[in-house]
């Protein structure tokens, strides 16, 4: 089944990881480093986007609600509706912090910061 924009509902995680992320101005934001899965709801909690750093040093990881990422074939990556400054100011975490407390702290902070309706209510 396809979405309204012609995308399929299902995608392998291996195809998502490493994909570039851009904002609507076309600026490169980072790449999808991983996805956090919610085992109890069988859904995706959030995408983990690596932002900044050089060769892995000083890299910050941001939890971004999966629902705000829109794949843009012409760019070969996902587009998020946020400015670079808004993303820079977003809650940042280490990889270990993203999975702490079952990922709920990072998830809640991301959904609150980006003003996205929670999927778990």
Task: Describe it.
The chain is globular, with a radius of gyration of 14 Å. β2 and β3 form a beta hairpin. It has a six-stranded mixed β-sheet with strand order 4-3-2-1-6-5. It is of the alpha+beta class. The chain has helices at 13-16, 84-88, 95-99, 104-113, and strands at 20-23, 28-38, 43-51, 60-64, 70-72, 77-80. 20% of the residues lie in helices and 30% in strands.
Compact description:
The protein has 121 residues and is an alpha+beta fold.
List the helices and strands and how they pair.
Layout: H1 13-16, E1 20-23, E2 28-38, E3 43-51, E4 60-64, E5 70-72, E6 77-80, H2 84-88, H3 95-99, H4 104-113
Parallel strand pairs: 1-6
Antiparallel strand pairs: 1-2, 2-3, 3-4, 5-6
Keywords:
121 residues, 6 strands
Strand content: 25-35%
Rounded mean pLDDT is 85
Number of helices, counting only DSSP H or I runs of 4 residues or more: 4
Q: Termini, distance in Å? A: 25 Å
Number of strands: 6
What level of helicity do the residues show? 10-25%
Radius of gyration, whole Å? 14 Å
Largest sheet: 6 strands, mixed
Task: Return the structural class.
Answer: alpha+beta
Taking strands numbered 1, 2, ... along the chain, how are they ordered across the largest sheet?
4-3-2-1-6-5
What is the subunit arrangement here? single chain
* Shape category: globular
Question: Helices and strands, in N-to-C order?
Answer: HEEEEEEHHH
